[in-house]
Write a structure and sequence with these properties.
- The protein has about 100 residues and is an alpha+beta fold.
- It is built from two helices and five strands.
- Strands 2-3-1-5-4 form a five-stranded mixed β-sheet.
- β4 and β5 form a beta hairpin.
C-alpha cells in the first residue's frame, strides 16, 4: 500500500467468475489483497464489481475506489480517493 495526495493506493489480485465472491484477505506472496468477484473478466464487469465490493467493505462510496493500474490484468492497483494510507490500513485490518 502506498500513499498519494489523492488517497491510498492498494495492490489487489482479483479472481473473476468466482462461485464464492468476497474479500479473501492478504496474500503475502503477492503483496496484495485477494478479492473474488462473480463477474467475468470482460468489458470492465469484474473491475466494476471489485471497486463496489471493496468500497462497501471499507465504508466509502463506490465512486471513490478507482482502478489506477492493471485494468486488464488480475493484478491491479486501486486508489481509494480521500482516504489516507493509515486510515485504509485500519479499515482493512478488520477484514483479514
Amino acid at each position: 500500500m502506498s500513499d498519494s495526495p489523492e488517497g491510498a493506493v492498494i495492490r489487489v489480485h482479483v479472481v473473476p467468475s468466482s462461485r464464492s465472491p468476497g474479500i479473501e484477505g492478504a496474500d503475502p506472496w503477492r503483496a496484495a489483497l485477494v478479492v473474488r468477484v462473480e463477474a467475468p473478466a470482460r468489458a470492465g464487469e469484474a473491475n466494476a464489481e471489485l471497486c463496489g465490493r471493496l468500497a462497501r467493505a471499507i465504508g466509502v462510496d463506490a465512486g471513490r475506489v478507482v482502478v489506477v493500474g492493471g485494468a486488464r490484468s488480475r493484478d491491479k492497483a486501486l486508489r481509494v480517493v480521500g482516504v489516507p494510507g493509515e486510515e485504509l490500513r485500519r479499515r482493512l485490518g478488520g477484514l483479514r
